[in-house]
Amino acid sequence: MKNRYFAAAVIAALSAGPVVAQESDTLRVGMSGGYFPFTFVSQNELQGFEVDVMNAVGEEAGLEIEFETMSFSGLIGALEAGRIDTIANQITITPEREAAFLFTQPYVIDGAQVVTREGNDEIDGVDSLRGKTVAVNLGSNFEQLLRELPFADEINIRTYESNIEQDTALGRVDAFVMDRVSSAQVIKESPLPLQLAGNPFSEIRNALPFRNDEEGREMRDRVDAALTALREDGTLTEISEKWFDSDITSAPEE
Predict the structure, then answer these.
(1) What's the Cα-to-Cα distance from 225 to each of 27, 49, 166, rounded to whole Å?
(2) Pairing state of beta strands 133-137 and 156-160?
(3) Could you tell me the pTM of the whole model?
């Protein structure tokens, strides 16, 4: 099912003095609408960090933002087919995706995070996972990261479709690995006795992909310039603080 939401993001200069006439272009943004707090629907309204960022981009760049929600697995295909112009859904830059799409600058900088049951002080980071049973979502970037560790054969990697948080809290596994931002949100929002274990061990950068053609390149450059302005005037940080109580738009402190 595809839902369509519209968020007015017409250039703010309409009532702000001298104005340069500018066409009302539209940027079609795909997202799942089911990934709290990045993109989700509450009371029939599309909300989240990604929604706020894209609305700010629209205002800065003079673009009308048109949101389209669909299953996450269908987003890349929709972009390739030209049904949407970009994807705002915590899309990680990977070599494979860079070969297929043009990316903006990263606007979320995250990392792979080890999480344990609260009070488990035996594990204080990725190097402590030797000899441990570690849960990870099947097919995720984090499963690949674990399997690429030089001591991966010393870890009992257990893949899950869901519920890695519960099994860690219940002691069925020693830890799970997820991205830093989502891990912090799980700990904050759920009653499960969990804790972050050490610092992130692999940096992940999220950005907006565009088709690699003339139109896509032009739009990518326009959106990228808007992101630069929003970073410099503090808007990205402000949006991040609203949703995460921290700035995920810059690299975490060591």
Answers:
(1) 15, 19, 42
(2) parallel
(3) 0.72
